[in-house]
Structures are given as C-alpha cells and as structure tokens.
Amino acid sequence: MPTPTKGARFGGSAAHERLLLANLATSLFEHNRITTTEAKAKRLRPLAEKLITFAKRGDLHARRQVMTVVRDKDVVHKLFADIGPSFAERPGGYTRIIKVGPRKGDNAPMAIIELVGGPGDESIVGEAERARGTRTAARTAPTGRTREIAEDAAAGSATAAAVAAEAADADAADDDLIESDNDGSEGGLESGGLADSDADSDSDEGDSDEGDDDEEPAK
Amino acid sequence: MAVPKRKTSRSNTRSRRSQWKTSAPTLVTCPNRACGEQKLPHIVCKACGQYDGRQVLTV
Predict the structure, then answer these.
(1) B44 found inside a domain
(2) So what's the pLDDT on residue A191?
(3) How far apart are CA A159 and CA A130, in angstroms?
C-alpha cells in the first residue's frame, strides 16, 4: 500500500489538489522535465509513475484511466507512444528529483523533476568523471588521453592504477572484436572527449535526441 | 475586540528583536573538480550547474 500523503492539501481543497497534480503531470509528460517546488515534486512523483505504469500496459482500459487524470489527448498519446515504451525495461523509478535550492522571492525550496533517460538526460558525463570512476559515469573502458594519463599516474595513485588496469582489460577484449573503435578518440583532448560521450549515450539509452546535448563542453 | 493596554516600550521591542538571528548555512565543496565552489549540500551547484556528475542547469 502506498504511503498516505501527510499534511494539508495543495491548493486548499482535495479537488484543487487533484487538478494541480494533474496539471503538473501533464506538464511533466509534455516537457520531460519541469521545475517546481520540492513539496510538489515529491507529491507528483507517485502519481506520474503510476501513469507511466499505465502507459507501459498500453491497453484501452489503461488509456481511459490515464485520461481521467491527464486531459490533454496529445500528451496522453505521447505518454503511450513514446514514454511508456521507453521505460519497458525499467522496473519503476521513472522520474528523478534534483533539488536546485531556494527560490528568490519566497525562499521556497525548488526542485527539478524529470523523466529518467529522456531527451537531455545523461547529456554530459565527462571523460574526467569516467577517469575518476564516479557512480554516475558509465563504466566504459577509458581510451585516448584518459588512458595515457592513468598509466602515467598508476604508480602514484590507486584510482589511476585501477583505471589503467581497466583500460588494459578492455583492450584485450577489444582486440578480438573491433580494431577501429578507438581510432576516433585518439586525436586531441577535445575530439576525444566528444567521441567518448557519444559512444556513452548510444550504449546507455539508445535515445535519438542525444546528439545535440553532447556538443556542450564538459565542465 | 482586545486592544493593547500599553504602548510596547523600545526596550521590549529591542529585546524581542535581539532574538532575530541569522545562522551560516552549511556548505560543502562542489565535487566537480573543475568547479570546486562552495555549495549547499544535496543541491545542484549554482556555479557549474552539475549535480552527482550530471549537468542539470545550463550556466
């Protein structure tokens, strides 16, 4: 059983809250990512995920149940045609809430709620992060400059040694498969970084709109 | 309707307001090595727009 929501209704009455959450859900599915207050984002998440689960089911009954919340047929179509199938492999956890700090004016804590793996997501996972091996970075073998640096520093640092070892492992595996894969990333630092992040997004999500976002330089 | 019997003295006003204090927020260093600014914990870095290795805001 889902945890009952605590506290007062948004907007004052139950009906107002229902409308407010429905509008938030509609906007979320329309734009893939919306900025709202933390409290609203947290209340929106269970509703949005329930609707996505309906979309994954995809039959007429599910569509009618979603239509009772999301009144916009275009958005419902997008939900059933694009969003639902894109989450076919994901067992829940379709949305991500990221806090962005207090709002100017009323100091309300704001948050971004977005669909996981949507367009614009996973845009910048820099080469530096992969070198560090942070949690979010996709675990692909380091190539090009990252690898050179890691091998240089392997003696001094355990992390760098691990990266270098990983590169060597992947190299051994790659030799059997494809030789041409690493060629693109052997160039300068900039081109190497872009080529790497391209390869990442392709292997991660298979989303179509990723190309645009990879152009931004990794910070 | 209830009304104040006395004007609130300057002393009382000032004593009350002496409790209005600010506190310094807890800050952490941005984990993005290229940034390294101080930022609020569990919140996107305002300087570089990254959170958890992910570009969240455009800066």
Answers:
(1) yes
(2) 43
(3) 11
Query: Does residue B7 lie in a domain region?
Result: no
Domain count across chain B: 1
Tokens of A212: 């645009």
Judge: A124–B43 Cβ closer than 8 Å, yes or no: no
Smallest Cβ–Cβ distance between B43 and the set A101, A126, A134 belongs to A101
What is the interface pTM, i.e. ipTM, of the complex?
A: 0.82
pTM beyond 0.90: the answer is: no
Sequence letter at residue A3? T
From B33, B34, B56, residue closest to A98, measured CB to CB:
B56
Show Cβ contacts of residue B27 under 8 Å, excluding neighbours closer than 6 positions: B38, B39, B40, B41
Q: What is each CA distance from B4 to A107, B8, B11, in whole angstroms? A: 33, 9, 17
**Distance (Å) of CA B54 to CA A54, A113, B50:** 29, 14, 5
Written as one string, the DSSP assignment of B1-59 is ----SSPPPHHHHHHHHTT----PPP-EE-S-TTT--EE-TTS--TTT-EETTEE-S--
Q: Do residues A51 and A25 make contact, with C-beta atoms less than 8 angstroms apart?
A: yes
Please choose, from the candidates A1, A17, A19, the residue with its C-alpha nearest in 3D space to the C-alpha of residue A9: A17
Residues with pLDDT less than 70, chain A: 1-2, 118-151, 154-164, 166-219
Instruction: State how beta strands B28-29 and B38-39 pair.
Output: antiparallel
Distance in angstroms (rounded) separating the CA atoms of residues A193 and B39: 27
The verdict on a CB contact (< 8 Å) between B48 and A101 is no
What does the alpha-carbon distance between residue A42 and residue A111 come to, in Å, rounded to a whole number? 9
> What's the domain range around B49?
26-59
Cβ proximity of A26 and A105 under 8 Å: no
Q: Which of A42, A21, A118 is nearest to A79 (CA)?
A: A118
Q: Is residue B52 part of a domain?
A: yes
Domain-embedded: residue B10: no
